[in-house]
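PROTEIN DESIGN WORKSHEET
SECTION A - STRUCTURE
LENGTH: 380
TOKENS:
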């Protein structure tokens, strides 16, 4: 169809498939015209050249703003789920191979032990005597063979009744051996963890507040979030300052979630590196914020108080602060005591008294934290 495009008046038999966007107008050009522009213009701007055929064939790729579809949370979520499901599928395939090996091993060892218990060699020896008669019928030999078979099956019968404890224990030991091998396998645990992560991501995606947090982070830092990497979960690790210290020191871009005994959920995002025994933060373009899931609210940092963004030592976790010594959120090592006073370093919503401790963020006068999760935000 593009053969029907008009030819360039300057370069015969070359189609006019390009458009040069000039200051006051536009000009249809061909490939040779473009080469001349590149050679003759000292400051050639490739952004001023439009490939009309490319736009006609792939309009979704032609305009910069159309790639926003690839940056929506829905597309990211679906791509993440697809990738995780593929990993799970591969892990399950690997486990199926392992299960087949375990089953084959178990059956083979059971067969070997069974042959030993039923004295298969003795049976085969008797049977071979019978086969070796070559259709002859010698009464005394046949009688001997009959007696051998009789004695053999009598011994098996007695064994079934009395049972040789040692042989039966061998079977039990075999079962225990394979059972322990299965129980100790990390393949099951790996798959369960992967499935749990997929489930967690799914639940979080269905949570509008989670989406609000991600959008707020992206808007504040002016970067696209590509991963929320869990680095600490109190339900899997112990809820202690030491456990938290091990995972946060030296890390940045951390998103914290706290849950109190009264089911109040709150948290904070800060981009700054965590170290022990000092405040960190900046007073310009500081993207940090506290949040309350129960209130469905975001409390951004007060920019000129940004140097008090975050603090950690063995005595407390602090968010926000001032020279007066107050903080917006303080959590002590027992996770029960502490307080909140919004408006010190993070903006308080209208109607909240910023002159004293309040229950607005915590749902109570003290944190009473029973769960904590920390994620590291990864950008593209």
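SECTION B - SEQUENCE
RESIDUE ASSIGNMENT:
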């Amino acid at each position: 169809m593009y053969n029907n495009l008009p030819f360039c008046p300057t370069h015969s038999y070359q189609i006019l498939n390009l458009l040069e966007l000039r200051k006051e107008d536009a000009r249809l050009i061909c490939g040779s015209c473009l080469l001349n522009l590149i050679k003759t213009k000292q400051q050639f701007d490739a952004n001023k050249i439009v490939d009309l055929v490319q736009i006609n064939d792939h309009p979704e790729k032609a305009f910069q703003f159309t790639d926003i579809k690839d940056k929506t949370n829905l597309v990211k979520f679906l791509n993440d789920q697809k990738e995780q499901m593929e990993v799970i599928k591969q892990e399950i395939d690997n486990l199926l191979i392992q299960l087949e090996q375990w089953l084959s091993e178990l059956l083979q060892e059971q067969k070997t032990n069974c042959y030993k218990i039923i004295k298969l060699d003795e049976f085969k020896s008797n049977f071979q005597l019978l086969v070796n008669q070559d259709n002859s019928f010698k009464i005394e030999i046949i009688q001997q063979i009959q007696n051998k078979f009789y004695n053999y099956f009598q011994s098996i019968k007695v064994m079934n009744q009395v049972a040789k404890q040692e042989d039966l224990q061998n079977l039990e030991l075999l079962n225990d051996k394979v059972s322990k091998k299965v129980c100790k396998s990390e393949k099951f645990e790996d798959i369960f963890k992967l499935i749990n992560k997929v489930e967690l991501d799914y639940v979080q995606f269905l949570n509008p507040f989670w989406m609000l947090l991600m959008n707020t982070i992206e808007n504040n830092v002016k970067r696209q979030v590509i991963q929320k990497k869990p680095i600490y979960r109190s339900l899997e690790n112990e809820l202690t300052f030491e456990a938290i210290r091990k995972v946060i020191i030296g890390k940045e871009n951390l998103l914290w979630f706290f849950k109190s005994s009264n089911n109040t959920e709150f948290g904070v995002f800060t981009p700054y590196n965590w170290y022990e025994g000092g405040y960190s933060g900046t007073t310009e373009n500081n993207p940090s914020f506290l949040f309350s899931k129960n209130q469905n609210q975001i409390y951004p940092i007060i920019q000129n108080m940004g140097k008090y963004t975050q603090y950690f030592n063995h005595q407390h976790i602090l968010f926000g602060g001032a020279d007066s010594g107050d903080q917006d959120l303080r959590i002590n090592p027992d996770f029960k005591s502490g307080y909140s006073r919004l408006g010190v370093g993070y903006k308080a919503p209208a109607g909240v008294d910023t002159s004293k401790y309040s229950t607005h963020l915590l749902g109570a006068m003290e944190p009473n934290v029973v769960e904590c999760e920390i994620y590291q935000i990864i950008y593209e």
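SECTION C - NOTES
Residues 2-62 form one domain.
The chain has three domains: 2-62, 74-190, 208-379.
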